[in-house]
Specification:
InterPro entries: YdjM-like
Number of domains: 1
Pfam family, one: YdjM
Structural class: mainly alpha
Shape: globular
Radius of gyration: 17 Å
Helix content: 55-70%
Strand order of the largest sheet: 1-2
Oligomer: single chain
Number of helices: 10
Largest sheet: 2 strands, antiparallel
Keywords: Membrane, Transmembrane, Transmembrane helix
Length: 216
């Protein structure tokens, strides 16, 4: 799942307008922000399955530190805890922690059984929505569109820049998502890792968006 996570981050602005959109997107996408770094460091592994359908073209053979159930819970607590230590806002900290864990929950829905329960267990889970490309696109599109609608219901552009900043990100995310069905995956593990690190630009984009819009 990709745009579904971003949709959930956008929609969370409706629940709590205090944190920046950048922070909400960071929380919702946090596990996938860690994964490329761990890939580059050699802590986790992925392989290309070139003859599989687009959604199944990556074999996530080993990623317990970013995507296991145990570490998803750990990262959730740490993310919320760091926010609470800085802002002293328990409600927002809990929301951000829940957003971090929502990433694993949505991945559990979409992934084939490749999500480890812990680094010390060989059991892997996943409900396999990826086996149906149409169902996956439908689920992600609903989450993405819903998140956009909820974010727009809670914010208003300060000027034309506020419209430009938000809709340019929406179009870019949609383009990234669509291209994944037609573009081959990177040929090297390092290439996947460095491409994944580009996601941090999208998080910074979220901070820019919130500076150009006001809460209503």
């Amino acid at each position: 799942m990709f745009i579904g996570h971003f949709g959930l981050g956008m929609g969370a602005k409706r629940l709590d307008p205090k944190p920046s959109l950048g922070t909400l997107l960071m929380a919702a996408q946090f596990l996938d922000l860690l994964w490329p770094l761990f890939l580059i460091l050699g802590w986790e592994k992925v392989a290309v399955a070139p003859h599989q359908p687009p959604l199944l073209s990556l074999d996530f053979s080993y990623y317990p530190y970013s995507h296991s159930l145990v570490f998803a819970l750990i990262w959730s607590v740490l993310f919320g805890g760091v926010y609470y230590a800085i802002r002293r806002d328990r409600g927002t900290a809990l929301l951000l922690g829940a957003l971090v864990f929502s990433h694993w929950a949505l991945d559990y829905l979409t992934h084939i059984p490749d999500l480890p329960l812990s680094p010390w267990s060989d059991t892997k889970v996943g409900l396999g929505l990826w086996n149906s490309q149409a169902a996956t696109i439908g689920a992600e599109s609903i989450l993405f569109a819903g998140g956009i609608a909820l974010y727009l219901s809670r914010t208003r552009a300060k000027s034309w820049i506020g419209h430009l900043s938000f809709w340019s990100l929406v179009l870019l995310l949609a383009a990234f998502y669509a291209s994944g069905f037609f573009s081959p995956p990177p040929s090297s593990t390092d290439g996947m890792g460095w491409m994944g690190m580009i996601q941090w630009i999208l998080i910074l984009w979220g901070y820019w968006i919130d500076r150009t819009r006001t809460v209503i």
